[in-house]
Amino acid sequence: MFFTIRIYIYAGILVVGSIFNLQKAKKRFHQSNNQVVMEEIFTTPQRVSQKVIQRTGTTVQVNGREKLLDEPVLYVANHQGLFDILAFLGYLGRPIGFIAKKEIKKLPIIRSWMELLYCVFIDRKDRRQSMKAIQQGIENLKAGHSLVIFPEGTRSRGSKIGEFKSGSLRLAMKANVPIVPVAIDGTYHMLEEKGRVQASDITMIISDPIYPIDYQSLKNAELAQRIQHTVEQLLDGCNNKELKKADITK
């Protein structure tokens, strides 16, 4: 438990220490928010996420980076644990935002960084607000800002995937952007498995993009099932020893 407290304190220090960069980022954001500026802004959240994960003793291995596109996409992933978000921020290698729970807006500095990354805050208990948040996400994608969603709706806290809900996939369908399935494995070992922070080995596997022409004839539920099946296959691939030798990031 002492190690867990140390990690939380370390993360807090990094977040507070980012205030100066946050002010610079806000100024740059209001001057211009083109792709170059977004990459500059993303540098701090990326570095902070990497430092926190590294401090836990965890390694992160990413396979399939060559499949990433230089255009806005909707990343669709399974959700094992809290550290999924830091893994994406630290190691995907692209500026991204998230569809996030409204409770995160209570965290001042983190909230400000998330707003700069075009994250969308959603209250799933308020249908009207949820619809408004989804529309905002669609507009963000159309404006060129990639998003990550976890269609299970909550952390699985283990290796088994919950049902992918189809509603959030409307983000891609309405914005007419590619969908990139991503499987992530090992994050639940870091916290959810024992209720305290510990080291793990995380694997992220990026799948081939699914382009609008490939999914526009599908119903939401059919598309959700197809993506879930893809992610499940990717997770099976996490046990492939040859796959684990490729593209390692620590």
From TrEMBL:
Q: Where would I find the Phospholipid/glycerol acyltransferase domain in this sequence?
A: 73-187
Does this UniProt record's set of keywords contain ATP-binding? no
- Segments passing through the bilayer: 6-22
Q: For this protein, what reaction is catalysed?
A: a 1-acyl-sn-glycero-3-phosphate + an acyl-CoA = a 1,2-diacyl-sn-glycero-3-phosphate + CoA
UniProtKB keywords? Acyltransferase, Lipid biosynthesis, Lipid metabolism, Membrane, Phospholipid biosynthesis, Phospholipid metabolism, Transferase, Transmembrane, Transmembrane helix
- What is recorded about the domains? The HXXXXD motif is essential for acyltransferase activity and may constitute the binding site for the phosphate moiety of the glycerol-3-phosphate.
Q: Which family does it belong to?
A: Belongs to the 1-acyl-sn-glycerol-3-phosphate acyltransferase family.
UniProt name for this protein? 1-acyl-sn-glycerol-3-phosphate acyltransferase
- What lineage is on file? Bacteria, Bacillati, Bacillota, Bacilli, Bacillales
